[in-house]
Amino acid sequence: MTEPSPASTFARNLPPAGELVVPGAVDTRTAAPVPPPQSYFDPINWHRTALHECLHATGHKTRLNRDQSGSFRSKKYAFEELVAKMSAAFLRII
């Protein structure tokens, strides 16, 4: 029996459409906004986006408390994007 892929395991644990809400989210600042799967040409891209946004949500002050105050093109913003990308790479879903 083959082991399920990380992508299929991730997909089974997510709601099927709309805004993906991170477990423990109490408001929109702790939610991960993800367009519905129908917005993507290839289903794997929805999974990649959902994971990426969930990984950003781990930086919320009630979780890992990363500094997410950076504006677009700032070093803080770039660092947060790198955290999400590298985290996804470690989870083998990129």
Summarize the structure.
By secondary structure, the chain is mainly α. About 40% of the residues lie in helices and about 0% in strands.
Provide an overview of this structure.
By secondary structure, the chain is mostly helical. The protein has one domain. Helices cover 40% and strands 0% of the residues. The protein is built from three helices and no strands. Helix 2 (43-57) crosses helix 3 (75-90). It is globular, with a radius of gyration of 14 Å.
Task: Furnish the topology, listing elements before pairings.
Elements: H1 6-12, H2 43-57, H3 75-90
Helix content: 40-55%
How many domains?
1
* N/C terminus separation: 24 Å
Pick out the low-confidence regions: none
**Total beta strand runs:** 0
Continuous helix count: 3
Largest sheet: none
Task: State the main characteristics.
mainly alpha, 3 helices, 94 residues
